[in-house]
Fatty acyl-CoA reductase
Amino acid sequence: MAENENRNRVDEMFNNKTVLVSGGTGYMGKVLIEKILRTCPSVKRIYTLVRKKKGKDPQDRLKEIFNSVIFDLVKNTVGEEVLKKVVVISGDVLEESLGLSREDRATLRNETNIIYHLAATIRFNDTLTNSVLLNVRGTRYMLDFAKECKDLIVFHHVSTAYTYPKEKVLHDKLYPPPADPHMFIKLVEWMDPGAVDSISQTLLNGYPNNYVFSKALAEGLVNDEMDKLPVIISRPSIVIPVWQEPVPGWTDNINGPTGLLVAAGKGVLRTMYCDSQGYADFIPVDIAVNALLVTTLDFILRGQRRVYNCTSSTVKVTWEEIIERGRKLVEKRLPFNGVVWYPGGSMKRSKLHHQISVILFHYIPAIILDSLIFLSGNKPVLWKIQQRITRGSDMLEYYANNRWEFKRDGLLAVRDSLTQREMELYKLNEQGMDLDEYLYNCTHAARLYMFNEGDETIPAAKRHMAIMLFVDRLCKFLLVIGSFYLLYQCFIGR
């Protein structure tokens, strides 16, 4: 019994197997590849589709990824030699036949055993055309390729828990897509992108954004292949920075909640239209990747489930608590450099109140400061930043003011079936998380890896924050004095 409890069946699953990862250069893709290399050294090979980007060829992009801090742990524990198991294949899910050469397609067709399809545009405000071409047609191209694979064991499609926002309770099951995915692919291929965007609100049919709509269509394509291919679907919720490993707090983007924390910490986010007592479902990327691995194992061993909701545990944290804890952190312990204003502001339950605050505390200060920047001979930046913040906040408002319940019966059943060793290696919940420590790690990692703000800059940042506090209180004091003066002039001074 003790021997069985020490088994790592995920490693056994990958033993001498070849894995293909689409989206391997993306956030989850990088963490997935690192985790497989570190905990499943018996894997034979990991192919990842990489396209040319900004003049860099796929090999150069892979070298950049391996130079990232998140691969330091696997280098130190397993050795750098294991990185040679990752092989770049020049390809693009946007292109027919995945943009593969005849030789590369033959190699992948003959060798691939497990496919993880993560490639997607996750931008809520991407055009509907781009969202459908990448998230829907790209999935169809991947499924078409999977049908050619000679020894395919599983095709793992990564979706999102918010795919069906009209379902307030989402179960581990398939749902009908909001429209015919094949028809939508033809539509965006045939119509001008501008024309598609002009009628996008009608086409979305109540969906909040292009991202979740396109992911729902993609699930429809996967559903069509359930009887023909060994396909499964994982639905992670909102993926946030690393909790524990390989690097606590690490992320490579400032989308979603991380962007809000950074914007508030820099003093450029002063208001948000949000139910302060509401909450969203967040899952650290390392937990999400663990879920991908063990659900793959579950399907291979049992083959009973096809859909897994990969969401957080029962611990729920309100938006208000996150914002307040984050504010205290960047005020006192770990301020950012280049803070524009002292962190403050509040959440608004009234849409009108929020919009007025945006004008007063976002737009007007941005215009004033950009004018001063322009007069000093530099390029104005704050107005563009505020426009980005407004777009991001508008997209997040839908999730901040609505609530869903995600059933995770499949993931709980998988967790109960794991050995002791597997539970240690592939943790599936946030039990034991210290929220303050987690937010500290997220902020620290953002400073280091997103903004190149080393620890040696913290004392200066604290001094700057103290100045911002003085200015903030001075402005509030002058505002109060000015208000009393106006009242005096109106009612007494006459």
User: Anything to note?
Assistant: The radius of gyration is 25 Å.
